Amino acid sequence: MKTLLKNAREQKGLKTREVAQILGIDQALISKFESGTRKPTKEQISKLARLLEIDYETLMIAWLKEKILYEIGDDEFALKALMVAEEEIKYNRTISNLKISTSLEKLLQEIDVLKAKLDTYRQFDSYRITQALELEYTFESNRIEGNTMTLRETDMVINEGLTISGKSMREHLEAINHHEAIGFIKDLMQKNNSLNERDLLSIHNLILRGIIPEDAGRYRKVQVMIKGSSHMPPQPFMVAKEMEDYFIWYEINKNKLHPVILAAEMHERLVTIHPFIDGNGRTSRLVMNLILMQKGYLITNIKGDYETRMQYYQSLETAQTKNNKEDFILFIAQIEKQSLERYIDIIAQ
User: What is the pTM of this model?
Assistant: First the structure.
């Protein structure tokens, strides 16, 4: 920045004394700005840019760069800190422009009223009710992905250890694996640890265990396409970086956003990266529900019937291709509200 200021002043044919007089700044300060021994204030930068006809953005970037380097120097954590700062700046710029629609705001308020009501009924929680709802969740989450087992057949496989005639080994494993993955995220919920890469890979490993063992718990190494979607996931060499950014985003936002918005965002962001060969949808929904349960909410169980599945896919497509997440967040919020209403009706009887 010092060279920028001095060169611009000399090109204008001005002496430091003249610049100081015009701007009402001490001449010694102008000399120190040009030698780099003192830094101008933001207001002084604005004045200097106008007088010396320097592009304001160029001068501000040079000024901010020097401030950052002065503060962090060559500290061993400097680059990591800059990455986190970059994500937070992006978030703050986004959140300052984020307009939560009236309908979403109203829905979140209704959800929080139901959540407060649910909290008063917690002593009536029943293991059998929870078990039944988790069975439904496994059934519906697998049905979304094309599993043809009925709810009763899913129950027989998981709870009775039976084999269903006419159903593939993969369908049996999908039921067993998803049930175990629910148990795993419930353990994580009890520990209340912040979601990390190790836990995410463990969830995915459970989902694909015995189905595609070589890819279970591992990021993909090939390009993939999402059936029925125009969204193209990132190239495989970008996946690790995208996932690193995913967890940085989570750490920044986990205590800033409404839990339903946070959970929906984590679902959408993960399935948009599509980091795995298979099992992205189930893993994304489990991550979403882990976050909801950690915050005291209920599992959001997206149904696998045609109408609901199409609404789910279409709202995801809008988020991925039009950078508009409103429909998807509303969709998740509506299902969370339905889950709360249903559960309260059951345990209040």
Answer: 0.73
